[in-house]
Amino acid sequence: MMTRIVRTAYLGLLVLATGCDGWTTPSGPPASIDAELRQSLNRWGTVPIGPTPAQPPALVDLGQALMFDKVLSGNRDIACATCHNPVTNAGDGLALAIGTGGSGLGPSRTLGPGPQFIPRNAPTLLNTGLGAPYLFWDGRVSNLGFGGGGGGGGAFQTPAGNQLPAGLPTLLAAQAMFPVMNRAEMRGTPGDHDRFGNPNELAEFADTDFVGLWQAVTRRLLAIPEYVTKFNNAFPGTPTSALGFQHAATAIAAFETQALTRTDSPFDRYLQHDDAALTAEQKRGALLFFGNRAKCASCHGGPLLGGQTFSNAGVPQLGPGVGTGAPLDFGRGELFNQDFYRFAFRAMPLRNVELTAPYMHDGTFADLEAVLKHYNDVPKALREYDSSQLPPALQQMYHGDDATISTMLTNLDGRLRQPLGLTDVEISELVAFLKSLTDPSARDLTSLIPARVPSGLPVQE
């Protein structure tokens, strides 16, 4: 319901924006750079984001505890916040995430004995509560409602199909059901023992037994008296015996929405008609971004500046791979009946993008300038990618052979088949614009880290 409210708000804003003075530019040459830019913003539906619905404090309190508590993981050694840490702007600063069995936090986190890297980059959770129609890099959780049941919890398509329980209020809550299912991320493998030497009972469930696993995680939580109190406060109309992991996921989503929505950037102020909010360089970059030369807005338009489409952008292939494509990662093309999207990944929303390096689905670019140089001539950049810039542990996992590159280029997004022809100055202007998308309050999120969690497990280690 919350997702529908937010999306409806966007549509309303769009209608209002196109009829307000200053947004509709008269025919003829633009009178100024601001008039030209506002005309481009209007064309791409890039309008101010309305306020996010306030979340109940008790629900947010429960969600914060769950976000930082390692009790959700099979081996009790990793929390959601391990890979989405406030210290690293709700990401982890790594090219490829390191799940259960690893040690440390942020860019210094290392693999433990046995486990591999997670196949994909851990995206930031900043602004995930704004109501995008797809979540995860391949969009396997969506609110489009085709090919899968929502279990009464909404028209959500998820890997769980009709096992998804009823009552999930938003797509973000539906997404929060799945990290605990992933063996490499949080669940572990059969025969694992947790940090105390106890058998990992969560690892024994079959990969398709979503319901059994969710019930087992819930039993863990409700065995802790403090969690019983927090759940009862957050869901006062629900008997303890009726609580399920969908209630935990709802609370996690509420915390993310309340604490990690940051939409007061200079660009946001510009959208609200403060012409002085952007520098001249940032405005020139914005004209390129929303114009026909750089073509950025064709994937990163709308209020969220992305998140609604998929593209094969010729991103270098790195990591252990996913599913049938391993050691390659087919992205959305790995999903059922989505062969057209082979090597295509979600065009992520770009707000606060300055803070969330490294970039792309596998973290192959260390900074924004590298991303833009790649887009400027994708075939050339892909063939000349320098894997020596990667951390030593990842260099051997780069797939830069001629066959892989040729296969990727056969399905390259048509908008990227020819060089864009951007100059170094124009690339710098684009970087300047992208930095205008940063909400200053998103730079330091450390106040969100709780001093303790109900399980008593360490919060930051």
Describe the overall structure.
The protein is mostly helical. It folds into 2 domains: 2-50 and 264-440, Cytochrome Bc1 Complex, Chain D, domain 2; 57-261, Cytochrome c-like domain (Cytochrome Bc1 Complex, Chain D, domain 2), CATH 1.10.760. The chain has helices at 2-19, 33-43, 57-68, 80-83, 171-175, 183-187, 210-222, 225-234, 245-260, 266-271, 280-289, 368-376, 378-383, 392-395, 402-410, 424-435, and strands at 134-135, 141-142, 310-311, 317-318, 345-346, 398-399. Strands 1-2 form a two-stranded antiparallel ribbon. Strand 1 (134-135) and strand 2 form a beta hairpin. The chain is globular. Residues 1-28 and 146-153 have low confidence and may be disordered.
By DSSP, the count of extended strands is: 6
Arrangement of strands in the largest sheet: 1-2
- Approximately how much helix is present in the residues? 25-40%
The rough form would be described as globular
Mean pLDDT: 91
Low-confidence stretches: 1-28, 146-153
CATH architecture of the largest domain: Orthogonal Bundle
N→C terminal distance: 37 Å
- Biggest sheet, open or closed, and with what strands and sense? 2 strands, antiparallel
What is the CATH superfamily classification of the largest domain?
Answer: Cytochrome c-like domain
Q: What Rg do the Cα atoms give?
A: 22 Å
How does the helix and strand content classify structurally?
mainly alpha
Order of helices and strands: HHHHEEHHHHHHHEEEHHHEHH
The CATH class of the largest domain turns out to be Mainly Alpha
